[in-house]
Amino acid sequence: MTKTGYNVKTIEWQNDEVVMIDQRILPLEETYIHHRTWQEVADSIKTMAIRGAPAIGVAAAMGMALAAMQSPAATYEELKEDLDKAARGLYETRPTAYNLGWALGQQARIYEKEGDPGQIRQRLKQRSQEILDEDVAMCVAMGEHGAPLFPEGACILTHCNAGALATGGYGTALGVIRSVFKRDKNIKVYVDETRPFLQGARLTAWELGQEGIPYCLITDNMSGYFFKKGEIDAVVVGSDRIAANGDVANKIGTYTVSVLAKAHGVPFYVAAPTSTVDLSLPDGDHIPIEEREPAEVTRFRDCECAAPGTPVCNPAFDVTPHENVTAIITEAGVHREPYAESLAAAKKGK
Amino acid sequence: MTKTGYNVKTIEWQNDEVVMIDQRILPLEETYIHHRTWQEVADSIKTMAIRGAPAIGVAAAMGMALAAMQSPAATYEELKEDLDKAARGLYETRPTAYNLGWALGQQARIYEKEGDPGQIRQRLKQRSQEILDEDVAMCVAMGEHGAPLFPEGACILTHCNAGALATGGYGTALGVIRSVFKRDKNIKVYVDETRPFLQGARLTAWELGQEGIPYCLITDNMSGYFFKKGEIDAVVVGSDRIAANGDVANKIGTYTVSVLAKAHGVPFYVAAPTSTVDLSLPDGDHIPIEEREPAEVTRFRDCECAAPGTPVCNPAFDVTPHENVTAIITEAGVHREPYAESLAAAKKGK
User: For B79-102, how does the pLDDT look when each residue is reduced to its tens digit (9 = 90+)?
Assistant: First the structure.
């Protein structure tokens, strides 16, 4: 696979197959899944073989290209019917990631205008590759914009995985950290393990290890201890959807980190491409929050950790209000309050 | 075993053996460990087969009685030498729990005055049983004092396990919840799973299930989400050591919960016997914080959850400053700021 990460590979075309690293079993095994149908891609999104809003967007775009290849349609009308069905199926996989709908919208632009089925098939595949390439380029731009925000020898806390694995490559929050590390080898990263799915312990720790960036893995409930000791200089996280006013949906636990950062006077940064910004939502109260199955909480991989039948809540995301966000880093630059203006301008500039 | 819990049994004498439920493998298996030597007891404390400051105190007291029985000493001097050695060994098992040193001090009062070895052996065993019985009585008293603090139909968050399993029986924080439930069946408890050792998921959830108290298990990073939604009316936790000024050491993650409670205007209560209060320490900065082994964070039971060699921090406790504590509930009553006065008075009253 091409190196997108730089050392981590997330998703790519191999001939007419979409190949993804299986993020459910990392870091213990490095296994690649080959997808020939959009239904297989939908299943990989739903079961979190691939996750992270930008990566989900890329996967959905590639899923649409697979749907076009699968379709035996000879006419435009038949092809459009098959593609609409695939788009609905892909859209319903996960409700919070805004990039999913954005990427499907990008593909819809191609096939909603009547055209030759063969050409549409080709252009959907081509556009999905562009979305991947643009995503990596946007991450690198975020890194460049974000890096100067961090003091020398910074201890940086991150939550979940907003790395190469969550994107086409390089990463959003972790992309910023990569860029900081390029200019300053004395940084250290605190990695929240990020229960229940352990994206921090399994994916972020693994990515940082691959790059040789110094880090320390902690459980989610430990960051308060290090904030209080003055050992955290800045926080940077990704996002699954950002409302027009700068409210940020991200992995469950992000809100708690933002409250701790505010209480300790530590800057809290969000790194995400403008395709994550949803100007149609006035604020975070309107962002749909996915509730996932109880077994993610009661089990730890194959290990039961609570009694059978334990009642569980499992919201997969929370919303950090814009008051808790010091700045939002996109490929367009560093945006601050009032976000309603700065984010709208960033989107318009695209 | 006698019902101390009421439905949960933690530790007791069976003839000349100290029998404990193995809290490392609860709730999947209910296994009891029989201890014939103080070294076995020390090992059970160190490896957390028994945990929770009050329960550790009871175990240490019983360990001293076992040490006396083990000792072949015919003279007082020989016996005292063996007991001093056992006291040192037991004391070194865990640094944060104040009740450990307190219980050893209770036993020292007996054997530090010269006396008949046979009588000393008998009185050490007798005193350890008294410490257990007093502990349960203190927990019930805490429940009575604490219950009126909670509004009708309260949603109560608790962290770690401060239940029957953490004490001689009934529990400190969970004892308060038991007492609230006796008068109000409409309460609900949010249970933090409490990584890395999962005392919430494994022990608190199990205890609440045994009592039929409605609860919902969440990962530690989810409580912020429920605070923000206004779904948490009060927090109650236990403590491993309380400094003279009311700073509270408790399981890692407690400090974060206290910051969240304060940010949302939710009362934060601590329930602990006065034997947890260490008047010799002016504030929480002086409380020793145990650092436990990395494998607790990178593994769960037999499951690896991070790459081999992952760098880890694993502080087992944190300190919640007294400003974040609404009230401290002991067997003597409900204490508020200024804690330096109210706690000293409570200790003196004993």
Answer: 999 999 999 999 999 999 999 999
- Rounded to an integer, the average pLDDT of B49-67 is 97
Q: Average pLDDT, whole number, for chain A?
A: 95
Q: Give the gap in angstroms from C-alpha A283 to the nearest C-alpha of chain B.
A: 15
Q: How many residues does chain B have?
A: 350
Residue with tokens 């996280």: A237
Q: What local confidence, expressed as pLDDT, does residue B299 receive?
A: 84
Q: Whole-angstrom Cα distance, residue B65 to residue B129?
A: 10
CB contact B54 to A (< 8 Å)? no
In B, minimum Cα distance to A191 occurs at B312
Give burial (CB, 10 Å; 0-12/13-18/19+) of A3.
exposed
The CA distance from A218 to A225, in Å, is 10
Fold classified for B145-347: Rossmann fold (3.40.50)
CA within 13 Å, CB half, B213: 31
The tokens for A76 are: 């435009």
A219: which chain B residues are within 8 Å (Cβ-Cβ)?
Answer: 195-196, 220, 252-253, 297
Per-residue pLDDT tens for A154-210? 999 999 999 999 999 999 999 999 999 999 999 999 999 999 999 999 999 999 998
Q: Residue A23's closest CA among A35, A36, A11, A5?
A: A11
Phi first, then psi: give them for residue B270, nearest 5 degrees: -120, 130
The half-sphere exposure of A141 on its side-chain side, counting CA atoms within 13 A, is 15
Name the nearest CA neighbour of B344 among B285, B280, B286. B280
Please identify among residues 282-321 of chain A the ones whose CB lies closer than 8 Å to any CB of chain B: 297-298, 300-307, 310-315, 318-319
DSSP letters for B51-107: -SHHHHHHHHHHHHHHHHHH----SHHHHHHHHHHHHHHHHTS-SS-HHHHHHHHHH
Residue with tokens 């593609």: A83
Report the residue of chain B nearest A202, measured CA to CA.
B306
Q: Whose structure tokens read 């494994």?
A: B202
CA-only gyration radius of chain A, Å? 20
Instruction: Give the model confidence (pLDDT) of A77-104 as tens digits.
Output: 999 999 999 999 999 999 999 999 999 9
Interface contacts A/B by beta carbons within 8 Å: 184
d(CA A316, CA A126): 32
Between CA B210 and CA B9 the distance in angstroms is 11
* CA-wise closest residue to A223 among B260, B214, B235, B60: B260
Asked if B259 contacts A224 with a C-beta cutoff of 8 angstroms, the reply is yes
**pTM of this prediction exceeds 0.80:** yes
Distances (CA, A) of A98 to B21, B25, B169: 49, 42, 50
Question: Domain B11-140 adopts which CATH fold?
Answer: Four Helix Bundle (Hemerythrin (Met), subunit A) (1.20.120)
Does the annotation count B240 as an active-site position?
A: yes
Contacts of residue B226 in chain A, CB cutoff 8 Å? 313
Contact A313 B194 (CB under 8 A): no
Name the phi and psi angles at B241, rounded to 5.
Answer: -165, 135
Distance CA A255, CA B224 (A): 6
Catalytic position from the list A240, A247, A278, A318: A240
Residue whose C-alpha is closest to residue B237's, from B307, B328, B150:
B328
In angstroms, the Cα distances linking B258 to A263, A264, B110, B261 are 11, 13, 40, 5
For the segment A44-69, what is each residue's pLDDT rounded down to a tens digit? 999 999 999 999 999 999 999 999 99
Instruction: Map residue B18 onto helix, strand or coil.
Output: strand
ipTM: 0.94
Q: Where are the alpha helices (DSSP H) in chain B?
A: 38-46, 53-70, 76-91, 98-111, 117-146, 173-183, 199, 205-211, 223-228, 254-263, 295-298, 339-349
Domain ranges of chain B: 11-140, 145-347
